[in-house]
Amino acid sequence: RLNGKLNPAVMYAAKKCGISEIISAGGSQAIASLAYIQKVNKIVGPGNDYVVRAKKEVFNDVGIDMIAGPSEITVVADKFSNINWVVADLIAQAEHDINSQCILVSKEKKIINDVELLIYRQLKHLPRRNIATKSLKLNGIFIKAYSNKQISDIINIIAPEHLELSIKNYNNILRKIKNAGSICLGNYSAMAVTDYNAGTNHILPTNSSAKFSSGLSVNDFYKRISYINLSKKGIETLGPSAITLAKFEGLEGHAKSIKLRLGRK
Question: What are the E-state strand segments in the chain?
Answer without folding.
Answer: 42-43, 63-64, 72-77, 101-106, 140-144, 162-166, 182-185
